[in-house]
Design goal:
Helices cover 90% and strands 0% of the residues. With 238 residues, it is mainly α. It folds into 2 domains: 42 residues; 194 residues, no CATH class.
Length: 238
């Protein structure tokens, strides 16, 4: 009987301990959100709002570019094999049909090269190079805006630092006192704006590096595939 009571008591303690742990976790999560909101307000909502807008616009551009680049990624080896088979079996028109049914910049470049195939290899190569530059521009579209937001976010944070320090010195001049209570508010604003600006810049920089590496990968595939297309056309002409 005593063992059963002890087991029941232990079970109850564990149950209430689990409830207390869950409640404590929820309190921590709520405290984090409240703390973030409070720090945002303390850093001057008007100024911090500009930094937040910078983050939102930067993330919008980054997400749009990532989606576009993922859709633009093509299996170039598979496409080259299909074009080779089409040239061997149905000629240039069959190869153009394969490119029309394939998405991505590589297929578009192939189509432009095949359009000029009847004019000779030099004309086809010039078309591939020229249209490749157009596709590269589309891949790099809006990336410069993302780099602008990366540079702008910490600059806004440092501007908030200067504004906060000016506010602190104004309070010192008015109170004619240099006690911590007088300058604490201005210094807090200075530090908070700097932190938020740096955090925004770090987040956007991660996305920027990923996008640039993705663009470089696609461009390298485009160049390799373009060389392969010219080789295929040369073989087809022979």
């Amino acid at each position: 009987m005593k063992k059963a009571v002890n087991a029941l008591t232990l079970t109850g303690i564990m149950f209430f301990g689990a409830i207390q742990s869950t409640f404590a976790q929820e309190v921590v999560e709520k405290t984090f959100h409240q703390e973030l909101k409070q720090r945002f307000i303390e850093g001057d909502p008007k100024f911090m709002g500009i930094v937040l807008v910078t983050l939102i616009l930067g993330l919008a551009i980054a997400i749009e570019r990532i989606i576009y680049l993922n859709m633009a990624t093509t299996n170039t080896k598979k496409l080259v094999a299909k074009v080779d088979d089409a040239l061997s079996s149905g000629g240039v028109e069959a190869a153009k049909e394969v490119c029309r049914n394939t998405k991505g910049p590589v297929a578009s470049i192939f189509y432009q090269g095949l359009e000029r195939a009847d004019e000779g290899l030099d004309a086809a190569e010039k078309a591939v190079v020229g249209y490749g530059g157009v596709q590269m521009g589309l891949l790099e579209k809006n990336i410069s805006w993302l780099s602008l937001f990366i540079a702008l976010a910490p600059m806004l944070g440092f501007m908030g630092t200067v504004i906060g320090m000016i506010d602190a010195f104004d309070k010192i001049a008015v109170a004619n006192d240099i006690s911590p209570a007088v300058v604490a508010g201005g210094i807090k604003i200075a530090l908070l704006t700097t932190v938020f600006g740096l955090v925004v810049a770090i987040i956007l920089q991660i996305f920027y590096n990923y996008i640039v590496s993705k663009v470089d990968s696609i461009v390298n595939n485009m160049e390799d595939a373009s060389i392969s297309l010219i080789d295929l056309l040369a073989k087809y002409k022979k």
